[in-house]
Every structure is written in C-alpha cells, then in structure tokens.
Design goal:
The structure is a homodimer of 360-residue chains. Chain A has twelve helices and 16 strands. Chain A has 360 residues and is of the alpha+beta class. In chain A, strands 1, 2, 3, 4, 5, 6, 7, 8 and 9 form a nine-stranded mixed beta sheet that branches. In chain A, helix 9 packs antiparallel against helix 10 (226-234). At the A-B interface, strand 7 and helix 7 of A face strand 7 and helix 7 of B.
C-alpha cells in the first residue's frame, strides 16, 4: 500500500499520456479534476493487486466517448459518482475497490477522483496496459469476464444500465448511449472479485506510468533527453522524427478517427510516416512498410520536451518524434490479437512484435 | 372484471388495427402470439380501471421498433417476459397489473401474452387511445409520470435498463438501443400506481377495439358495409376513396417513414390524397387541404372488407378508403398538442379537430 497525493499527479498524468497512445482524452482535464479531488479529500490509498482480498468487489470507473468532445465538454462531478452508485445499486453490493479501465489520459486520473470522492482504495492495475477505443478490448475479456453490468451517467441526470450477453454487445449499447448523451459520458463497469483482478488485469501500470512521467520530468530538469529517459523506463523504440504536415480527423459514431502525415527530418529526412488512429494511434507506416501496429503502443511526442501529443492536439507544423513500445504479452496471444490486432481495426496485415521489426 | 379468451382475439386484433392508424405492427403476428399464449395458459382477466386498487403496481409491456422489421423478425417469447422481469428487479417490487402502451396493432395483443404468461390481470386502458411512434407520446407524460425505468430485452439475452430524466430522453435512449438490437425489441415501462392509471390513462380502449372489431366482423357476415359499421362504433368520417398509386417508404433510425398517394375513385374521382406516416399515419392532404392530422386518427382500410391496412402492407393498386376518427380529448389540450400535434412532426399547420373540418 502507498499513498497517492497531489504531488504524484504530474508524473502520473504525463506517463499515462505516453501510454495513452494519442487517446484517452486530454490529460490536462483529468489532472485538474484529480487535483481538486485530492486537495478536498486528501491522498488515496493505492494497493498492489496482491494486497487485495480475493473476495473484494472491484469495479472500473471511466469516461467513455470521443476525446475530441471531452476537450470542449468537461466532465462534471456528479455523473462520475452517479454511474458508480448506479452500478452498486444494480448489483446489490457495495464496491470495495476502484480499478482503472485503461492507463491512458483521462482514464488513469479519473479513477483517482472516484477513489478520493468515495473514500475507496484504488488498485494498481488496468485492463489494457495502454489505451484502446472500445470496451471489449480489455484483458478481462480474454478471461471471460463480463463488462456488464455497465452503468452510464450523464450531466443531465440520465442513467442507463446495460446487461449485455458479451462484451462486444456491451460496447455497442454503451457507445450508442454515449453518443446520445453528447458523445461523452461516465461509466462504471467490469465488476470483478479480488481473485479475478489478480489473473485478468495488467498489474502495476499506475506505478509504471508514474515512473515514466518522473523520468521525463527529471530529464527535463537536468537538461537531458526526455524521450530517451521515457523509453528507458517504458522499453521501446524511437520510430521516426519529423514535422506534422497533414492531419485528417473527424468525430463519427462516438470516435475521433483520422490519419496524420509526418515529413521526416534529421535521420528520417526525405521519408514520410503516416499514423492512423481511432481515438488511439493504430498503425504507423513508412513508405508502405509497417513500423508498428496495434496492440503495440505508438505515441507521438513533442521532439523537444517529450510531451505526448493526443490525437486531438495534433496540428500542422508540430515537430515530433514517434515512439513505439511493446504491449503486454496478454495481447500477443491468438485471442488477444483477435480482439485488438491490426485485422480487427480493418488493416490486412499480420501483427509483428515491434522488437522483431526493429531487430531487422 | 371480465375474461378475455381465444374467442375475443379476432375482434380485438381487428379493432386495434383500425385504431393503430397504420402503425403498431402486423396484427397477424400479435394475434398468433396471443392465440398461443391463451391456448396454453387459458383466458386472462381484464379489469376496468375502477376495479384496480390504488396501490397496485401497474406496468406496460410493449414491443418497440419499426413495424416493417417486425414482419420479418418475429418477436420471440423469452424477451417479452425478460423485459418485464428486469423491470421488476430494477424497481424491487412485483408488478401486479399489466397495461397497454397503445391500442394499435401488436401492442394491444402482446400485453395479453404477457398477462397470460405471468398470470397477471390486464387493465382495460392504454396510454394513447391509438398508436403513436414515440414513447413520450403517452398520456401519462401529460400527468408528469415518467416512462423510466424502462427495461429493454432482445432475443440474444441482452437487457438494458434506462433511467432517464424525462420521457423525451427515455425515447432517445430506448430508440438507440432498439436500433442496436435489430430495430425491434421488447420493453417494459411506465410503472404507475392504480391511482395514477385512473387519472393518466385512457380508459376502456381494449373494450372499444373489441367492439369495433365485432362490428366489422358482424357487418361482413350480414353482407353490410363494414366501414360504416366500424365508424358507427368508433365515431368518425369517411375521408376519401381511391386506389393507391404510389408508396414511398424507408426504414430509418428505427422508424418506418414514408408517404402514400391515393388516386380518387367514385365521389373522389379526379382528386388525389396523400397520407404521410412515421410508423403511424400523420397527416392526410387533398390538393393542399388538410383533411385530418395527428393527434386525430387516420386509417387506411380495404374498400371492400374494411380490413385496416398497416403502412408496411401498403402497395400499388390497393383499393382503399381512408377513415378519420377524433382522438381522445387529452390530446387536444395545449400540452397534448405540443406533444403529438402536427408541429411536433414537422408540419407547419394548426391542428383542427376532424369534426370541425367535416362540419364545413
């Protein structure tokens, strides 16, 4: 057990933005909300999964929707707890531990808000080891754990509870309701026992994100290379360096979808890299060659500061580096790749682990 | 109290089809399902609203979606009761009485299936006195009674429960989920006390529908004019006689929308009537003059048999009469017209009661 307070927040938000692979929402918004909650309620307890009793009732607290919308439609306070309470009421039990849906952007800092406001501990784990755009893309799905019941709440006081037969249906229904609610809503989902999260969730990713963030902040202070520092902690590769020359982006069906083109500079001068995204970056291609693809992580960072750039912040002229990081091994199994591999997202390519591509 | 058995079914289905104003789904499907349920479980008890205890827990059982879809995707048995049970579980009380959402097509016969299969009595009332396409278009809305919680179930075992702040939001969410479920799903909704239904529901519409149906069947047997017989019971007007020459129809956003054109015959020879619909017939116009509009009832019937023709059965060449019937007085209040008047459906005309139009 450790305490997580206001002083831990900058590093977590920064590291989670890197692991968020362009999605997960504006980390600034989540940091603001968590700052306020931690100031009002004091630090929250962070437990290692091994410290959680096997019969604990754990549930995710998360925001769902298009990150592009979340920048303009700031999440409120009431609906986050409303979704959590509606889930408790539906299952007829009190939730004892808060868990993270993903370790990217808003969804790594907002569960801290839920923990602070409910007084519950948060467990150091998440269901993606990164950010992904859809609910079923969660490691518990690989362990046959249902996302349902899912409670969804909006800022108008509407609440919807979904009991879907599988996690793909859960995503379909939750996405429709989220779109109706204005393309962003709070959800509470994936009720699991303590025993289940030890098997089905990816452990210690809050800690990893905080260490990545600290490494970047420390390197900046020392005048060292922040990107090198982040990669040293996260493990990974510098895929490409250049200037953003084009961004296509649209918000459709509750997602921010699009593509960016980066014109190479320095060692990459003369080449172009395209990165396609659906909330999160999905695939990076250089002259027809895939440099990295889902489920491995692809993050665009500011070339000078190492600050991760979300898909909604992308714009012409930014000088960036593109960083690739291997995903958790659960995603590299046949079942994992079926759920979140390049083919699921419509790319007719075989997944090749990023470290194999860079060995060549 | 009276008993409703297999022998009452033909008349109810026929009369409800007339009051269904083209919508409410294929009465044949509902009659088949009710026939099976009544044969298996025996007759159901039909109570007059005055016989219902004030503290009774009444709830509607209905099908939601595009009638065009219901013809091809027959509703199953499990999901109807599943929605009803999910609503009971959500409110934490047992439902004591079944009520009808609308007295049109499927939704007047399917509650009889629910009553037969649950062993509960059904109350002789409905929330529209006709059929309407959207949930909030219910007389309880005029009495500030919430449609929520609404339970929705499909044939795959999915269940969604909606707790919306108002009945327009309830419609929005339920429609999205229905579309996701394949454009047709079972719902249970509008939990009301016995005291509330006596105020907020339109009484004795099951009886009215059965009397209309009996009148048509009787006239056919005697060789009399079945349309005249129906109008005598329902009250109303013969608006137009002719041949269907054009039908435009599309299923969009969970509705069957479209327009028919009827070329006049006999006394209407040389004139054209257009009838526009959204599941139900909305407005009938002859050479730019409105002959009838929502909330008054507009039903197209076969010119020979008086058999009501639903919007999905419309086709070129049918010889038809168009019948208009005054709606319940609750719909003619300013609040009623705001909810279901022509302007709500996008027609920039003032509602004029059908009997005023025909006085001229």
């Amino acid at each position: 057990m450790r305490e997580f307070g206001v002083e831990n927040l900058d590093a977590l938000a920064l590291g989670a933005a890197l692991l968020g692979t362009g999605g997960g929402g504006d980390p600034y918004v989540g940091r603001l909300m968590a700052h306020q909650a931690l100031t009002e309620h004091g630090p929250v307890q962070v437990l290692d999964p091994s410290e959680v009793p096997d019969d604990a009732v754990c549930a995710m607290s998360a925001v769902m929707g298009a990150p592009t919308v979340l920048v303009e439609k700031l999440p409120g306070r009431g609906e986050q707890i409303a979704a959590f309470r509606a889930l408790e009421q539906h299952i007829g039990r009190e939730i004892t531990h808060v868990i993270c849906a993903e370790i990217g952007g808003l969804n790594s800092t907002l569960p801290i808000v839920t923990a602070a406001r409910t007084g519950l501990p948060i467990v150091d784990c998440d269901a993606m080891g990164r950010a992904f755009p859809e609910i079923q893309m969660s490691t518990p799905t690989l362990h046959d754990i249902g996302a349902s019941p899912i409670a969804i709440a909006d800022d108008k006081g509407n609440v919807v509870v979904i009991d879907a037969k599988n996690n793909h249906w859960a995503e379909t229904f939750a996405r429709s309701i989220t779109v109706d609610m204005g393309a962003a809503a709070f959800i509470a989902l994936f009720v699991q026992t303590g025993a289940q999260i030890k098997e089905a969730m990816i452990p210690n990713t809050l800690d990893l994100a905080e260490r990545i963030g600290s490494a970047i902040l420390g390197a900046r202070q020392r005048g060292d290379d922040p990107i090198a520092a982040a990669i040293e902690v996260a493990g990974g590769f510098r895929l490409f360096e250049g200037k953003v020359t084009d961004v296509e982006r649209k918000t459709s069906a509750g997602f921010a979808r699009g593509k960016m083109t980066i014109a190479g500079l320095a060692k990459d001068a003369g080449a172009n890299l395209t990165v396609e995204f659906q909330n999160e970056n999905l695939i990076a291609t250089r002259s027809g060659t895939v440099l990295a693809s889902v489920p491995d992580l692809i993050t665009v960072v500011d070339a000078d500061t190492g600050e991760p750039i979300t898909t909604e912040e992308l714009k012409y002229g930014l000088r960036v580096e593109v960083v690739g990081i291997p995903c958790h091994e659960m995603w590299r199994t046949p079942e994992g790749l079926e759920l979140v591999g390049p083919r699921y997202f419509g790319y007719n390519v075989e997944f090749v682990p990023i470290e194999k591509i860079w060995e060549r």
